[in-house]
Each structure stands twice: as C-alpha cells, then as structure tokens.
Amino acid sequence: MDNLLKNIFKGVSIILMVIAAGYQIAVFYQGGSPSDVVLDGYFWIAYIAFGLSALFAILFPIIQIFQDPKAAVRTFVILAFLVVLGFVAYYLSDNTFTPAELDKMKTTADISVWVGAGLIYTYFVFVLAVVAVIYANISSLFK
C-alpha cells in the first residue's frame, strides 16, 4: 500500500513539475508582461499542487496512525502541546493600539490580539526549532 501511494505521489509530482516547467518557459518567453492565459494556467498548477500537498499531508499521517498506533500517541501528544502553546500565545498577546490607531489601520482590537498571538506563537515555534537543532547536534556528538 505504501509503495503504491508513493509511486502515485511521484507520478503526479512529475506530471505537475513538467506542466509547471512548460508554463515557466512560456512566462520567460513572453518576457516582462506574460499573458493572462499563461499566468492563469501557471497559478492553477500551483493551486493543484498545493491542494494535493495538503491532501497528502493529511492522508499519510492517518495511514501511519493505523499502521503504528504507538507512534500515533506521540504525535497526538505533540499536537496537544502545540494547541496548548497556541492558547498560551493568545493569552500573552494584547492590544497595544489606541482606538485612533486601530481606526487608522482599519482593524479591530480583536484582530490586533490575534495578530499578536500569531507572532508570539511563531516566536515560540522558532525557539523550539532552534533548541531542537542544537539538541540534535549535541546528542549526535555522543552517539
């Protein structure tokens, strides 16, 4: 089953890359202002590739859960940690803008809080990624 899915994924990827390369050549050939038809086709390929990537990003972990339930527990713990981290980021964020500044930016206090939460969450994840890279490098020295 895994090999079949991998082969399908590879085949679809190759087909999309060839089509995207054709559109890229058309964009380069037309120069500074490519036609709307070429750009539309180019973007549709990007949309399809993004959609398939999202589908496979959801599909493969689900298949993996059924094949190795013990690893699924670890995945769910990590997901729960990330959700809790999101709540922490939300509760740490606040609106620091005055009503006049919010009106000038054409936004609301709620959106300001959500943007702040997104930034704080990004900072948390960045720090965790750096710590993970450092840990992996140090632990590989002792193996």
Structural write-up:
The protein folds into 2 domains: 1-67; 69-143. The mean pLDDT is 86. The relative contact order is 0.06. It has 143 residues and is mainly α. The longest helix is centred in the C-terminal third of the chain and has 33 residues, at 109-141. The chain is 87% helix and 0% strand.
Number of strands: 0
Q: State Rg.
A: 22 Å
Count of domain modules: 2
The biggest sheet amounts to: none
Q: How confident is the prediction overall: mean pLDDT?
A: 86
**Poorly predicted spans:** none
Query: Termini distance?
Result: 34 Å
Helix % is over 70%
Instruction: Kindly estimate the percentage of residues that lie in beta strands according to DSSP.
Output: under 5%
**Count of runs of 4 or more consecutive helical residues:** 5
Structural class: mainly alpha
Order of helices and strands: HHHHH
Give the overall form. Answer: flat
Work out the oligomeric state of the chains in this entry.
Answer: single chain
